[in-house]
UniProtKB/TrEMBL annotation:
<keyword id="KW-0378">Hydrolase</keyword>
<protein>
    <submittedName>
        <fullName>Retropepsin-like aspartic protease</fullName>
        <ecNumber>3.4.23.-</ecNumber>
    </submittedName>
</protein>
<dbReference type="Pfam" id="PF13650">
    <property type="entry name" value="Asp_protease_2"/>
</dbReference>
<dbReference type="InterPro" id="IPR034122">
    <property type="entry name" value="Retropepsin-like_bacterial"/>
</dbReference>
<dbReference type="GO" id="GO:0016787">
    <property type="term" value="F:hydrolase activity"/>
</dbReference>
<dbReference type="InterPro" id="IPR021109">
    <property type="entry name" value="Peptidase_aspartic_dom_sf"/>
</dbReference>
Length: 146
């Protein structure tokens, strides 16, 4: 029987190596608008997010939104939206990806308090859905359809 990686490659998927943090999240390097950053993978997050404090670094042009973001351990958070961005994970690219900007200090506090590195953002279900994601937890691989 063929391996999952070989099977998905034949079906047009690309593989992206994941690393596990001390908090048991998967972390991955991504490129947003040509700038490399560190992101955690969160299947429970509806949208891909970047910290408000990282907007300039990633060249994010944002506008106010009525969206109120909420996450584990936090109440409603004010959010902004950056509607058209180039997002890349390995060889997988998405043009015109909307990115939500919000205060990720509570996320980074949780990570750094458990000896993990702070992250620039979160990859949410929007990217996973668009890429028809398959996650191999044992081999720590993310597969996205080109």
């Amino acid at each position: 029987m063929s391996s999952l990686k070989k099977y998905l490659k034949r079906k047009g998927f690309v593989s992206i190596k994941l690393s596990r943090t001390q908090t048991d999240h998967f972390e991955v390097k991504a490129i947003l608008n040509g700038v490399s950053g560190s992101f955690i993978l969160d299947t429970g997050a509806s949208n891909t997010c970047v910290g408000l404090d990282k907007a300039e670094r990633f060249g994010l042009v944002s506008e106010p939104t009525d969206i109120k973001a909420a996450g584990a351990g936090s109440s409603e958070l004010e959010a902004r939206i950056s509607p058209k961005n180039l997002f890349q994970l390995g060889k997988w690219k998405k043009k015109k990806l909307p990115v939500v900007l919000l205060d990720l200090s509570h996320v980074n506090l949780a990570l750094t308090s458990r000896e993990s590195e702070a992250v620039d953002g979160i990859i949410g279900a929007d990217v996973l859905r668009k890429g028809r994601a398959v996650i191999d937890y044992k081999k720590k691989m993310l597969f996205l359809k080109k």
